[in-house]
Amino acid sequence: MLLSWARVVNKLFVLFGLLLSACTALNEDHLKESESANIYLQLGVRYMDLNKLEIAQQNLQIALKKDPKNPQVFNAFGFLYEKLQNNQQAKQHYQQALDLAPNDWSVQNNFGRFLCDAHEYEQGLALLNRASGTSLNDKQWIALTNAGRCELEKLQKQSAQGYFAQALLLNSSYAPALLEMQKVSFRNSNYVAAQTYFKRYIVVGVFTAESLWIAKQTEFALGHNERAKDYEKILLDKFPLSKEAKQ
Question: Which of 8, 55, 69, 129 sits at 20 to 30 Å (Cα–Cα) from 104?
Fold first, then answer.
């Protein structure tokens, strides 16, 4: 009897060992698929940066097939569909990303910005405030700048300026926030501040037609006609077909 029981126990240990081996193999397979999915995800994002959207979509589809519960894949798909001007699909994929990772600040930031652009301001701002308010976010200035832009869309200029100022307190060289502060200062007829923000912006950012047009108007307002003409020349040379150049 004791011998029979020993055999049963031994078989149980063998079976348990086999189950552990199978689980380990499954986990290893899942890890390999997850790592592979991340590679295709990074490729998809890179091709989006290069504006090669068809190749980006192909890579993201492979990533999704390999890891169908990866929130960052859905996050990237949301951004891709924005670029393809398919807002319905973009919203659907951002929502799936948020469902999978409700506390992920990058998902909150992207979805919040998207909702603000779609005039769903309250929900968008709620997500952006969550993204900028978490200590896990090491780039809070991005969400703060997007929240400021959202407030501008709502014509809440003072609140918007507060968000941009907060962003620059965290990262004084963040180009998008500097550009927004240049615009806000110019609209408030604070030309010295607009000039200062533009000078800080061009150290870290790239000329845009709008920033050059505002800089030109700012220098005219300050009586610096020669400098204004210099900005006008750069504007016409770099952006001859822009609405600002036509103005």
Answer: 55
